[in-house]
Amino acid sequence: MLVGFIFRVAPPSMSSTPKSYVIVLAILLVFSFLIRLIGWDDPYFGFHIDRRLSTLQMSISYARDGVDFLLPHPYWMMGWQQPILLELPIYQALSAWASVFTETVLSASRGVNLFFALLTLPVVFQIAAIQFCRKTATYAVLFFTFAPLNLMYHSATLPDISVVFCVTLAYWALAEYLKGTQNKTIFIVFLLAGGYSVLVKPLYFLPVGVLLVTHFLQQWGYPRMKNLLNYVGRHRAVICLFVVIAFVMLLWTEIQKEVNHDSMNSLQFFTFAHLSDVMFYMRVLFRWFLLVLNPFTVLFFILGVLLLFRDYRGSVQLALLYSIVAYHLMFGVLFTAHEYYLLVMVPFASVIAGRGAYWIEERIQSDFKIRFSHALSTVIIFGSAIGSVLIFSVNAIAALDLEQRSASIENEMHGVLEQEKYAFIYIDRINFPPRDYVVYDRTSKLKYFAGLLSKEQIRLRSQPIRPPELLGRLKTYGDIRLTTSKPTPEVDVEKIQARYQGHLRYLMFYRFTEEAKTQIKNRIEDYKVIYESVNWLVYDLASG
Predict the structure, then answer these.
(1) Is 229 helix (H, G, I), strand (E, B) or coil?
(2) Could you report the per-residue pLDDT of 357-411, keeping only the tens digit for each?
(3) For position 225, what pLDDT does the model report?
(4) Which DSSP category does 463 fall into?
(5) Which end of the chain has fewer CB atoms at under 10 Å, N or C?
(6) pLDDT of residue 12
(7) What 3-state DSSP class applies to 354?
(8) How many CB atoms are closer than 10 A to CB 118?
(9) Mean pLDDT, consecutive 10-residue segments, the chain of 544 residues?
């Protein structure tokens, strides 16, 4: 459908496109979405499991109990505090509503994101076509769909994919308006897409603001005040809509502060502190070469940047690059820890890389007198796809739970605990094999296998199991304390229970030695042990 759309609206120069070329592009697009189906039924497959599981649990609670946009589900939290409302949970509500057509909420959540990922493709095409040409747009779409970061996260239970669609849609609407198109549809699309963006991920809306500011600055001359007033007068409709969207964003942050009791809001991560951190720049290089793009397409991106400054100086096309730079300057602290926050940069990077790829195609075709340009284009696209699939494969294999290490927890504890109760869990972080510490920490994994970290350093640096994964397997809420058997932790049951206002049900100890478990049982005599095994010691505080 997408490929048909691209070539149906193509100019006469592309009307003679060979059917074989169209078929190849269609097969590649289908293949890219088949890759996203890996781990479809496994909620623990993938990266950043903490965020994915908490989002999924909110969708599950909405499907079961009904949608309440201002009441986040307390999936995993510290103690008995009110859960944090991270975004207006529209995506979670869509997942819950879509689950009536699927077997599980998980499949509905993944399906919703794949739907938004598919919708983003023609929008990326239109952005590139407006600002460059349709051949550049074709490259941009294929680079976008095979970006390693997209292959890794497009089916993840995260709200980000829907926001990326809305941001690119708002960017396209504004670019179309600045090109001279003015109708009610453009304004409505801009308002709705922008509103959704700022209600879910306000920082993702930055490229749209950069585009408007870039357009203004490139036309702002002397006399300054007169030109400013003239600009505002000519573009008052879109400026008013932008102000409305900004007001919605500020209103939403105030609601967040109220719900979260001033503990967190969407704009608190605006800082420049990361710019003095050398590791920030190392992570940026790593992620752009291996996640946002791949080593093959990043060369086209660099070339595209050079072409922007050579051929488009003083044009709005530079907003594509300015958006990337501004995002890194203002919000680098976020994607330093959370790589999926770079998802919004993939469309703009893909468009720039598409411009570089098309220039290379033209140069090779003219210098070497190549007649079959579509064959050359196919080679470039295949090279990008193969590079991204290889990178995805390495990351996917690293994330696979080949030994089902946490599945054994679910199997063992099935029927022991009453579900959706609160538990306080002590974990002996020493009694895990080294491989458990590096399952979700690629940096530690590389350093460990390179001999740069010892087993002891690995144990201090990483967690052997992610708290949301453990709580998800146990079907409980609560808190987790990583400690060691030596010395045996001092446990004050009344003090812990007070944190939960009397709602704590289970006190649990995982992976402690037999000697440590004996000492614990001698200290806790007022409550009943309901389960004990090699790995577990479980108290039911309701039976004390």
Answers:
(1) helix
(2) 999 988 888 777 666 667 888 888 999 999 999 988 887 766 665 555 678 888 8
(3) 78
(4) -
(5) N
(6) 42
(7) helix
(8) 16
(9) 51 60 90 91 82 86 84 52 74 93 92 96 96 93 95 93 96 92 90 94 93 88 78 88 93 80 62 80 89 93 95 91 93 81 95 95 79 79 91 75 69 87 89 76 70 75 81 86 83 85 89 90 88 92 76
Residue 156 contacts residue 113 (beta carbons within 8 Å): yes
H/E run at residue 145: helix 134-145
**3-class SS at 428?**
strand
What is the per-residue burial (b if ≥16 Cβ within 10 Å, else e) of 72-81?
A: bbbbbbeebe
Query: Distance (Å, rounded) from C-alpha 339 to C-alpha 334?
Result: 8
Q: Which two tokens stand for residue 502?
A: 């009397």
Q: CA of 169: how far to CAs of 142, 143, 186, in Å?
A: 18, 18, 10
Q: How far apart are CA 48 and CA 343, in angstroms?
A: 14
The per-residue pLDDT for 9 is: 47
**What gap in Å lies between CA 60 and CA 46, rounded to an integer?**
19
Cα separation, 109 vs 186, in Å, equals 29
Which amino acid appears at position 529 of this protein?
V
Residue with tokens 């590079």: 387
3-state class (DSSP) for residue 412: helix
CA pair distance 155, 399, nearest whole angstrom: 15
Token pair recorded at residue 291: 């996640």
The position carrying tokens 């991270």 is: 86
| pLDDT per residue as tens digits for the range 298-335 | 999 999 999 999 999 889 999 999 999 999 998 887 77
| Contact by Cβ (8 Å): 207, 323 | yes
Beta-carbon contacts of 277 under 8 Å, excluding residues fewer than 6 positions away, are 336
How distant, in Å, are the alpha carbons of 91, 113, 159, 166, 203 from that of 197?
Answer: 11, 15, 10, 6, 8
252-262 pLDDT, tens digit each: 888 877 777 66
Predicted local confidence at residue 18, as pLDDT: 77
Can you list the alpha helix ranges (DSSP code H) found in 400-523?
Answer: 407-413, 434-437, 442-449, 455-461, 467-474, 493-499, 514-523
For 490-530, the DSSP string reads P--HHHHHHHTTT-EEEEEEES--HHHHHHHHHH--SSEEE
ω before 202 within 30° of 0 (cis)?
no
Closest CA to 423 of 71, 75, 85: 75
pTM of the model: 0.86
- Geometric angle at alpha carbon 122, from 7 and 347, rounded to 5°: 125
CA 76 to chain centre: 19
Q: In whole angstroms, give the CA distance from residue 228 to residue 209.
A: 17
Q: Angle at which helices 373-399 and 346-367 pack, to 10 degrees?
A: 140
Torsion angle of alpha carbons 160, 165, 167, 168, nearest 10°?
140
Long-range contacts of 485-489 (CB under 8 A, 24+ apart): 485/428, 485/430, 485/431, 485/512, 485/513, 485/515, 485/516, 486/516, 488/516, 488/519, 488/520, 488/523, 489/426
Query: What six digits make up the tokens of 543?
Result: 């039976």
β-partners of residue 508 are 425, 538
